[in-house]
Amino acid sequence: MTTQRDAEATKRPRWTNMKFKATLGDVGARWLDRFAPIFDKLGTECTVLLTPSTMYIVQNARVAGGIETHVDFRVEEIFENYRISSVNEDKIAVKLEPGSLSRVLRGLIALEAQRVDAKLIKRAPNPNARALPYLNFTTSQCVIDVSQDVPIVGPLSRSELSEFEAVVGANVVDVPYWLDADRFALESLREGIERFARVSDLMEITTTRSGAMYMSASKGAVSLLGTEYRGLRVLPADVDEYDEHAREPAGFSARLAEIKSTRSGSTVTVNIKHIQRGFLGCASNPSNLLIGISSSGNYLELVFRYGAQTEQDGDSVGYMVRIPVVDEADAIEA
Predict the structure, then answer these.
(1) 280 pLDDT exceeds 60?
(2) What fold is seen in the domain 4-170?
(3) pTM score of the predicted model
């Protein structure tokens, strides 16, 4: 019986002139293990995109339940040795099940494997079957030699690879300013979103260049919950408009009303289920979170960062989430 994976494999480019071989260290395995379970909760499929300088794990909106998400690793943060070549500008993309990747990583970590050889292979599951592609992990640095395969679909064609490059390149570039939430504020935001989810399907978010953020949930014209965060760091620093001598209205509602009336902030409405899915990134133990609204007003952007936790530098790992905005007409009907 021909499986979907068999059928897709026959449509993929041949493996001629395509090679990937790397050494995964203990640090790299633990980084990957932070994110594989998150992608597993978001969907049953993810795309691993390998380039000469960066490794991406990507899920588009179709797979991730309406949001776009990806984690970016500089290869030197994950791999001790790294070799890649292909006819697609030395880029390779494959699809796999994040749950399968997570199980293999957990096994390697439990065995305290310090160095693991990772490579793409083709192997026949039995003597009479056609060879299928796998991402293979092999180590001899444990008490026993271990070799484990993660089934993949790929390599993807040039057009498919470009599709996922577009997902990676779409966010972060169109945000005029960011609010920087530290670990304490991040946990408070997550708890607030969970409270809002109990009473509403939609949530309104407002950000300002003076470092304020407002979250509120409502049913129709009735406001049910509201939360205010003030004094958040604004990035880049030269767009910060905080004025310690400015006189502001007393009370959450009055301050938010003035921001809206003077259009001194950016306001969007998002589906609470979408933002809950985005905040699954909290499970990766981030140092802080950047929150921004695209200049077009069509997306809420989240960037989870890891600061001193990385060995190379603070920007060598980043987890990005792009959440679509709900149309005003749909928000009013809800």
Answers:
(1) yes
(2) Proliferating Cell Nuclear Antigen (3.70.10)
(3) 0.89
